[in-house]
Write a structure and sequence with these properties.
By secondary structure, the chain is an alpha/beta fold. Helices cover 34% and strands 18% of the residues. The chain has 2 domains: 249 residues, TIM Barrel, CATH 3.20.20; 55 residues, Orthogonal Bundle (Arc Repressor Mutant, subunit A), CATH 1.10.10.10. The protein has an 8-stranded mixed sheet. It has a two-stranded antiparallel ribbon with strand order 7-9. A two-stranded antiparallel ribbon has the order 11-12. Helix 1 runs parallel beside helix 2. The two termini are 14 Å apart. The relative contact order is 0.13. The structure holds iron/sulfur cluster.
């Protein structure tokens, strides 16, 4: 498969109907990221990217604008254009130019979903200044826990991330700053981030960062490590109440699993490719694919059968909840 930009609809409670732009280097690699999170839905990193210089220039701003021109018109009710997917978008140093170029041709607000790893760099912060919304993942206020959960590439330090997020909040031109607190539990003796000690430290650090909004969530798809489990709803609600007390209900959003979402109203150009692209971005259940692409069971069934027989996708998860993913 040749290198290409992957587009796909994303349906989420926070972003509504969003067109995902995935500025990846190598589609043969499952992900292009400088983390290898224990909860990653894309599985283990074949290769952990060390920094932007590793991916520089692979997908250019010109290429993004050329291909997005027709694509964004294919979804009627688009709320956001979102940079996210199988890579960490801030690794591409043309991100700021890409965002400015897209803004010159359409009025959709632009969101970047980032793992926060590079916000300590000034060039990365200046790229992010072009976006309307930055959703930055943050898992712990302790360096040890951060390293155990996110497993960053060498040279990435929690201290720099905290400083970088604070710097974004104080920039004159800046995106709205949303922090996504990804919480995990475990079946083994692993340094999880849902304990009282971790939550109190998270609150202390997030108070320093002072984000515009905070989203509390847990894993909803099969994680890279089998010993990682979702935080139960009861505990998530307790944690969200604690955040409410400190930050106010308006700033805190609790995301529980299994939310029903409306169908996408997407016009299709090549439905087989769109199904494959969606699965390439993240493992999905049969139902999630139908909802995201706005197609019926009857339309999807033969496409899944074809992708399975060509071994382009495989099944994962449990017998109660089967996910499709790329091998
Ligand atoms: S969860 Fe996101 S940040 Fe973590 S390894 Fe996967 S793609 Fe990278």
């Amino acid at each position: 498969m040749k290198t290409r930009i992957i587009y796909g609809p994303i349906l989420s409670r926070r972003l509504g109907r969003s067109l995902g732009v995935d500025i990846i280097k190598n589609p043969d690699s499952r992900k292009n990221c400088n983390y290898d999170c224990v909860y990653c839905q894309l599985g283990h990193a074949d290769y952990k990217v060390t920094g932007p210089e590793d991916v520089k220039g692979t997908i250019t701003a010109t290429k993004v604008i050329e291909s997005i021109q027709s694509y964004h018109r294919n979804i009627d009710d688009l709320d956001y254009i979102t940079f996210s997917g199988t890579c960490e978008p801030t690794l591409n140093l043309e991100l700021g130019e890409m965002i400015s170029n897209i803004k010159s041709i359409c009025e959709h607000p632009i969101c970047v979903i980032s793992n926060s790893s590079l916000v300590g760099r000034e060039d990365v912060r200046s790229n992010l200044a072009e976006a309307d919304l930055l959703i930055a993942t943050f898992v712990s206020g302790y360096e040890d826990t951060f390293r155990s959960i996110n497993r960053p590439a060498p040279g990435i330090r929690l201290e720099d991330i905290i400083k970088g997020l604070k710097a974004i909040k104080s920039m004159e031109k800046r995106p709205k700053l949303g922090i996504e607190v990804m919480l995990v539990d475990s079946e083994i003796d692993f340094p999880v981030n849902c304990t009282d000690r971790e939550i109190e430290r998270l609150i202390e650090v997030l108070k320093q960062i002072d984000p515009d909004e905070i989203e509390i969530l847990t894993i909803s798809r099969p994680p890279a490590e089998k010993y990682i489990t979702a935080v139960p709803d009861t505990r998530l609600k307790e944690i969200a109440s604690r955040f409410d007390e400190e930050f106010g209900k308006d700033r805190v959003r609790l995301v529980l699993r299994g939310l029903k979402r409306g169908r996408s109203k997407m016009r299709h150009q090549n439905i087989d490719e769109e199904v494959y692209d969606l699965i390439l971005r993240r493992p999905c259940t049969f139902r999630q694919i139908c909802t995201s692409l706005g197609i019926t069971d009857l339309e999807l069934r033969p496409i899944i059968a074809k992708l399975m027989s060509s071994k382009s996708i495989v099944e994962t998860g449990s017998s109660e909840e089967v996910y499709y993913k790329t091998p």
